[in-house]
């Protein structure tokens, strides 16, 4: 029986721009928002959009990520007719090699997709923060009878040169694709979210795999080739919150966005929940002398000092006389008495010594404190 759509989630990137946070951890497994990991967002979007078959393509430092995902139980995807399947690179009769690019990763798993016989394939990235109903995008794709539909979002025109830009006609059909243009014609940026008609994409993947000059990438090779050959390609405009958290600065900004009064990424929306692995912790404790303002404090944390406009993950200790301002403190870190942390990200299981001074709330830099090293971004 033909499946209408399945999802393939690309989660194998190194995330080198996140520095020490991804030295021993896949980028999609990086912590976010007080209790989540980045990959929780696309997985939750799949669950909420009733897409029940998800292949997760992992590669770099994937042990913890694989353990976190499991069989998809935290997202309600472990059903009789659905489920999450981890798809690392593997050796076959034809040989085996690491995923050489986003398109090659899908190509190496053609057998998995064929086994489910889908009409369409949804391609996702595992390192973006957003909430999106993919079923609405699928409706648009079906109505347009598209061979490919690419989700786009309007960005400031001065930032458009950082993205793949879609130039469209009045029907939203893509007539030109520019990869990081120096002088962009518009501000419709690709979100890295694609729906392809599988029978069409399959042929392009097989052809691309034989091309020794190709980088085997959707943005650099597959999409331009499909456009050149006149395939029906459309841009689906998304109006919600979306953030590529590929740098320390963007990760910090996305966390701080959660604390704004006009935050459009509502984590408290019961109609579109973000699911994750709920680790069992002791209750949160806040002492009589503690001061907490405009912050997210997770379970198991012990607060004796001041916390202002910050995200505090589970089992964090904030000592007496300590002040944490505009910062993200990841799980099981310990901020000793008298320390001052401003405009910083503290990695998990880090100890900040007594009376330390890190960061500057009035400066432009974001400080990252990890077990390995300290960086000023």
Q: What order do the helices and strands come in, and which of them pair?
A:
Elements lengths: L2 E8 L20 E2 L3 E2 L2 H9 L4 E5 L5 H7 L13 E4 L15 H6 L2 H7 L1 E8 L2 E3 L3 H10 L4 E7 L9 E5 L5 E6 L8 E10 H12 L8 H11 L4 E5 L4 E3 L3 H10 L27 E2 L4 E3 L2 E2 L4 E2 L2 E3 L2 E2 L4 E2 L4 E3 L2 E2 L4 E2 L4 E3 L1 E3 L4 E2 L4 E2 L8 E3 L4 E3 L1
Parallel strand pairs: 1-4, 1-6, 4-5, 8-12, 14-17, 15-18, 16-19, 17-20, 18-21, 19-22, 20-23, 21-24, 22-25, 23-26, 24-27, 25-28
Antiparallel strand pairs: 2-3, 6-11, 7-13, 8-11, 9-10, 28-29
Helix pairs in contact: 6-7
Catalytic activity: alpha-D-glucose 1-phosphate + ATP + H(+) = ADP-alpha-D-glucose + diphosphate
Function: Involved in the biosynthesis of ADP-glucose, a building block required for the elongation reactions to produce glycogen. Catalyzes the reaction between ATP and alpha-D-glucose 1-phosphate (G1P) to produce pyrophosphate and ADP-Glc.
Pathway: Glycan biosynthesis; glycogen biosynthesis
């Amino acid at each position: 029986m033909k499946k209408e759509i399945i999802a393939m989630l690309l989660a194998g990137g190194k995330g080198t721009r996140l520095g020490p946070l991804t030295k021993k951890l896949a980028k999609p497994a990086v912590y976010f928002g007080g209790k989540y990991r980045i990959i929780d967002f696309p997985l939750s979007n799949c669950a909420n959009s009733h897409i029940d078959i998800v292949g997760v393509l992992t590669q770099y430092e994937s042990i913890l990520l694989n353990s976190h995902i499991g069989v998809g139980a935290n997202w309600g995807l472990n059903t009789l007719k659905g489920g999450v399947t981890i798809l690392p690179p593997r050796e076959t009769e034809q040989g085996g090699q690491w995923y050489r690019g986003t398109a090659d990763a899908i190509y190496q798993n053609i057998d998995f997709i064929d086994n489910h016989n889908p009409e369409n394939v949804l391609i996702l990235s595992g390192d973006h923060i957003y909430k999106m109903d993919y079923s609405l995008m699928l409706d648009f794709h079906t109505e347009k009878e598209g061979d490919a539909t690419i989700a786009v979002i309007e960005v400031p025109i001065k930032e458009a040169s950082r993205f793949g830009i879609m130039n469209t006609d009045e029907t939203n059909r893509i007539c030109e694709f520019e990869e990081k243009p120096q002088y962009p014609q518009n501000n419709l940026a690709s979100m890295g979210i694609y729906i392809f008609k599988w029978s069409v994409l399959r042929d392009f993947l097989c052809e691309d795999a034989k091309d020794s000059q190709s980088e085997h990438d959707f943005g650099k090779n597959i999409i331009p080739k499909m456009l050149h050959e006149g395939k029906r390609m459309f841009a689906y405009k998304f109006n919600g919150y979306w953030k590529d958290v590929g740098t320390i600065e963007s990760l910090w900004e996305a966390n701080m966005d959660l604390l704004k009064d006009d935050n459009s990424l509502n984590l408290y929306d019961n109609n579109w929940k973000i699911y994750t692995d709920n680790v069992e912790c002791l209750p949160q404790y806040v002492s009589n002398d503690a001061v907490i303002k405009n912050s997210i404090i997770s379970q198991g944390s012990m607060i004796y000092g001041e916390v202002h406009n910050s995200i505090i993950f589970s089992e964090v200790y904030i000592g007496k006389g300590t002040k944490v301002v505009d910062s993200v403190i990841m799980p099981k870190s310990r901020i000793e008495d008298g320390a001052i942390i401003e405009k910083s990200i503290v990695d998990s299981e880090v100890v900040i010594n007594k009376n330390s001074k890190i960061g500057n709330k009035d400066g432009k830099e974001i400080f990252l404190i990890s077990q390995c090293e300290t960086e000023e971004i």
